Amino acid sequence: MTASSTGFTCVLDARASLAECPLWSVDEQALYWIDINAPSLNRFDPASGDNVTMPMPESIGCYAFRKSGGFVVALRGGIWLCDREGRLQRHVAQAPYDTTHYRFNDGRCDPQGRLVVGSMNEKRDSDGAALYRLDRDFTLTRLFGGMTISNGLAFSPDGRTMYHADTPAHVIRAFDYDAATGRPSRARTFAQWHGANERPDGGTVDSRGHYFAAFYGDGRLVELAPDGRHVADHPVPAMCPTMCAFGGPDLRTLFVTTARQKRDADELARYPQSGGIFAMRVDAPGQPETHVSA
Is 87 helix (H, G, I), strand (E, B) or coil? Predict the structure, then answer.
């Protein structure tokens, strides 16, 4: 196990309340990300430093790129198609939960072009959250439940393993993933922690199959080998990293989004760029994001 020095630098001092879901567009050479609380979908151009904000009408949990252009976005009230400018076009799936108690959270496109998205219990008073799959005909299928906050969704390079975290349970699980049916099976513990701040939030996988988990409240990314072995800690200059993504022309820039919400004055004095986006160069490239077939 190794611990990296603070190799991250702030590339966008966004001061976002809850920045999340960074995804790199290979075609545009731009990083998209959301602020769940603002709420908005954003496009950041690292070359120019410009960030374009596309407001959303309600909390946005995640999104995915569409092959035909634009996005699929998971809002509190359901799943929508929207255009390249973030304008909502079509409501394709109703939220499968009580919107006063739950919202959509982390998700991503599977290797076959289907959106897999989880929900979260905002009151954190039960394990009623679940993971869902949006098929090409926009049917929303419940995959499994029994969690409080669905997070950490990622896929191995060969697409045969799906990773998923339940943040309050301090656990990341691995599943066999059936490409034909989009069904996860054979759940097993990939990594388990017990410390109060060892809370795996969003995650991603590089081309070697290493899984990177953002530890919300602990100021670091944790890098795990395909067998779950702890490879390295990567400190972030903000206490609440939320999710990470590989980007840049060679996919060897690791971006991480962070949160500013509910942080006290002393912490913000120590980490004034909390809520920003940070980046560092890494040795192994990531994987391009799959686009939703819709």
Answer: coil
The whole model's pTM is what?
0.96
pLDDT in tens, 97-140: 999 999 999 999 999 999 999 999 999 999 999 999 999 999 99
DSSP run (H or E) holding 268: helix 265-270
| One-character DSSP codes across 220-277 | EEEEE-TTS-EEEEEE-SSS-EEEEEEESTTS-EEEEEEB-TT--HHHHHH-TTTTSE
Cα–Cα distances in angstroms (integers) from residue 57 to residues 60, 86, 88, 94, 204, in the given order? 9, 11, 9, 15, 28
Which are the catalytic amino acids? 201
Q: Give the start-to-end residue ranges of the domains of the chain.
A: 2-281
Which CATH code fits 2-281? 2.120.10.30
Q: Are strands 2-3 and 230-235 parallel, antiparallel or unpaired?
A: parallel
CA 72 to chain CA mean position, Å: 14
